[in-house]
Write a structure and sequence with these properties.
Elements lengths: L4 H4 L2 H13 L20 H7 L7 H23 L9 H8 L6 H18 L10 H11 L2 H14 L4 E8 L14 E7 L30 H6 L28 E8 L2 H8 L4 H9 L4 H8 L21
Antiparallel strand pairs: 1-2, 1-3
Helix pairs in contact: 3-4, 4-6, 4-10, 5-6, 8-11
């Protein structure tokens, strides 16, 4: 359960309380007139007034979403002001700069804004349950919903350090997305602001550096390789390997859709749950998953609850 007010104020947690008070200044950041904005959560007003029952207090939600997301988006605007990325979607930015070490700060802020929104977008103030089509996919991949829960929470609890744990749907060749006959669901972990998208992990090495002189073959950034003969300059047509519409997947990677995610960063749960409360927070989070959004992200229902839409819906793609 969430720690009581008296317990929160014990000496070991006073530093956390003082940090949250100082962090209140984040709310007074100047409103950005252009660029990225903090998206509206479907249940945002309820969370502001009541917190997330059993999971985060009003103050805990304010710190983990209102203040933190506001700060990340504000910094993202500072980093992109006056550039071609000023109005780009966060996903496009993180994919663009994932392998450019000199743009690590830009990647981190775009990816964290994107990840944190996805996390909060799949939370409901009321308990929900997955419908039979999703249950069939879960049973095929994990044997049961109970097994998925235990595996997912054990994975998140065991993470030593901040990051995210994701439920993803793999794109299996020759397996229709709606078919539950082939295991398509998997659990994926990313640390810090790492992205679950395979395009963010693309790394091209056009020569075997074990047999070549590195001085003669300096490293290539991914976008350089795309323009070299190693990729292709032939982009005519809308289909085929070299079509500009084709997704770029890292060698050994697999195309996937992100369905659900939980944030294990300490600022999300430490205030309400204490230094030993991570597991309790994760169990409470599981009870607040909006399975309707998960099903929408998987394409098992109409788009009314799908959180991966365009900018007009305030989705995590459109910040």
């Amino acid at each position: 359960m969430i720690l009581t007010k008296g317990i929160r104020q014990q000496r070991a947690l006073r530093a956390v309380t003082s940090v949250s008070k100082r962090a209140a200044s984040v709310q007074r950041l100047p409103r950005d007139n252009v660029g990225h904005r903090v998206p509206q959560l479907t249940h945002g007003e309820s969370f502001k007034q009541h917190g997330i029952e059993g999971m985060l207090s009003v103050e805990g939600f304010d710190l983990a979403w209102t203040q933190y997301q506001g700060y990340i988006v504000h910094r993202l605007n500072e980093l992109t002001a006056g550039t071609e990325d000023e109005n780009s979607l966060t996903k496009n930015i993180l994919l663009k700069y994932a392998r450019q070490a000199d743009r690590a700060s830009l990647f981190n802020h775009a990816s964290m804004a994107h990840n944190n929104h996805l996390f909060f977008s799949t939370i409901s103030p009321n308990p929900t349950s997955p419908t039979q089509p999703l249950i069939e996919h879960i049973d095929t991949s994990f044997s049961s919903l109970s097994s998925l829960r235990s595996t997912f929470l054990a994975t998140a609890s065991a993470m030593f350090g901040p990051g995210f744990v994701w439920l993803v749907r793999k794109h299996i060749p020759a397996a229709p997305s709606y078919s539950a006959a082939v295991p398509q669901l998997a659990i994926l972990t990313t640390y810090l602001a790492g992205s679950p998208y395979p395009g963010a992990h693309y790394r091209a090495q056009p020569v075997d550096m074990a047999t070549q002189n590195s001085a003669d073959h300096p490293g290539m950034r991914p976008e350089q390789f795309y323009l070299s003969e190693g990729s292709a300059n032939r982009t005519a047509g809308s289909m085929g390997r070299y079509s500009p519409n084709q997704k770029r997947v890292a060698p050994g990677g697999q195309d996937l859709d992100v369905l659900l995610g939980v944030c294990t960063w300490e600022h999300v749960w430490l205030r309400d749950w204490g230094v030993a409360g991570k597991r309790g927070f994760l169990e409470a989070w599981w009870e607040r998953i909006d399975w309707g959004v998960v099903e929408g992200n998987m394409g098992l229902m109409d788009g009314s609850k799908r959180m991966t839409g365009g900018r007009q819906r305030g989705s995590y793609y459109g910040m």
